[in-house]
Every structure is written in structure tokens, then in C-alpha cells.
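Q: What structure does this chain adopt?
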Amino acid sequence: MGCVHLAAPDYSIQDGKTFPINAEQFHYLVRHNHVEFPDLDQLEIEERNSVDTLSRVITVFQALWFTIKELARIHKGYPITTLELTALSFCFITFMISILWYHKPSITKPQFIETKDGTTIQQIRTSARWSTHLDLEDTYYRTPLEFIGRKRFGIDAHWSYYVSLAHKLRINFVSRPITRRPWDRVPSDMWICPSPWYAPGAAIVLAGFSIIFVLAWNFTFPTEKEKLLWRICSAYHAAFSLYGGAYYAIEMARLNRKKPAQAPRQLSDMQREQSDLLDTESQRSPSERTTPARRRVELLLERAISWRNLSDNQDPNMEVPLRIIIPITITCFAYVLSRLYIYLEDLISLRKQPADVYLTVNKFLPFLAGGV
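A:
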């Protein structure tokens, strides 16, 4: 939900209008003397990690023991089922998450930081408009300080599009919709562009998860049709996952690439463009401007354009071109069907398996000879 919330006279704790800030925004506030650096030592940071360490250890141990037993079965030449292979894929992700989130605290209550000398958020924005962000607009879409460091990340825009679509269909399968402005929390499913040095590790995790279902290419299936469907779905799963990883890398590189700042548009330029549009419209014949067919086409175009941005407040950073979202939707739908079949086959394939799948290894020392 956000570890640090900023409080100010116009966004106070009493009014329930505080909002989360990230590290870059916090650095900006301290650097420009808007807040005092809080006395938050290492001990207090560690105490804010309220996740039960014992539950983490038990979960990882169970996944590790299951993985060891399955590797022992493979080592002895025993066959495994697709259900066990799917469980191994979840164990693999569990290990990676446990490693990468080892220091991730569980935040249920934010740490409030108040502005210095009663400085209001409006004063901070006004100061930024005169010093660091000359083209700062009056409107904000998430928090009043979003102008500090916020960049459009294509992956987050695409994901937010589908989340907004699900919310409009009354399907809250991912996260609760945020109804307050400014935001009172950071959504847990928000995609944030990582630093490039995370890419090698992410590529290893992605490659392992992508190809794991292909390992069942020559497994025993009840029928040849089921084996063929498994091969198709597992191959598509691998291709889609690798394609998604490549697309993620492209968006990450695009965001991290530094671009020269564009000069703000002059008022005279905008007035000239509006004048040109009016001149063009006035030169058209009345029939060209008012024909029913043309009007119907314009209505269809307006309806199509409205589907490019499904965010409640029409955040321009959440706009996705239809030429991109339509192909992605089709490929994602096919991916969902592939995953559903994989889960379904995990269950129905149990009706007919070779007898060797019921052979066990030593429960206590799996790699020793003799099953129990």
C-alpha cells in the first residue's frame, strides 16, 4: 500500500487525504527542503517486516523437499505425471520469489511524513512550476507529486487496461479498484520498470518457467490427441512467455533510454494549428460536413478512440493504441486457453498412467537406494 505517506495542511492525516510517495519523490522533497529527513534507523526498518519468518521457512522447505524427491525419481528413471511437473513449476517460482523478496517488508500501516514549516502541497507544486518543472499542469491523475519521476511504462499501461476492463465488468480478480483521488495506496499489481541490471536474472527465471511444460513432450498420455494438444499448448506457452519477456525488455530499454527534453509548445503555435483546422473545415462543402454517412463514420471512430483509454480519470499515460491492444488481447486469450488446458490435462491424465508413476523413493533420504 506504500510504506511512506506524505501529510500536509491541505492533505492532512485528520482529513484522510495523505498519499504515498516513492523514493525519488522523497529525495526531491528532502533536496528542496520541503520535508525533514526522518530518523528511521535500520532496526525500525527491520521491525516493519511483519511477515512470519517461520512460515517462509516452512513454505520453502516443503517446496524444496518436493523438488528433491522429484529429482530423485527422475534420477532413478521413474516417470512423473504432468501434475507433478506443474507443481515443480510453482516450486521454481516460489524459490525465485523467496530469494528476490527476502528483504521485502509486509507493510500494513504507512509511515507518515509531514511537510516542513506547514508547507502545503500546492506550494510545493507552485515551487516546482517555477524552478524544476516549468510545464507542470494543474491536473494530476494519481497523486499531486506524480510529476516527479513518473514515466509511462508500456507494460503497466497494458496491464492497467485489462484491470480497468475487468473492473468495468464487475470482475475484481486482481486488485481492488482505487476510488480515492489522490491515491491512498499503491496497487500490489502495479508494474514498475526495474533497473537494467535485473535483466539477466529475470531472463533465467523466464527461460526456466517458459520451457518447463515442454519437458513433458514425450510423457505418457491417455490418448494421442491429448499428447498432441499438450505439445501445442506447451509450445505456445513457451513462445508466448519468451515473446512477453522480449517485449518487456524492449519497453524497459525504451523507458531507460534518455531522450532530450522537448521544448514546450508556444501558444502561437497552438493558435496557428487551430486556425488551420478552422480554415480547412470552412473550405469543405456543406454536404461533406453534414452527410449522415460521414457522421456515422465519425461516431464509430469516436467510439473506437474511447476504447483506447479505459482509466476512470482518462489518464493520458494509460492510453493504449488499438493496433497494439487488439493483437495482444488475442494472443493473451490464446495463452489463457493454453494454461487452462494444461491444468485440465494435469487432472484428466491421471485416469491412465504407467504403473511406475506409483513407485516411490526413500522418504527420508531420496537419493539412497530403496523405496519406502
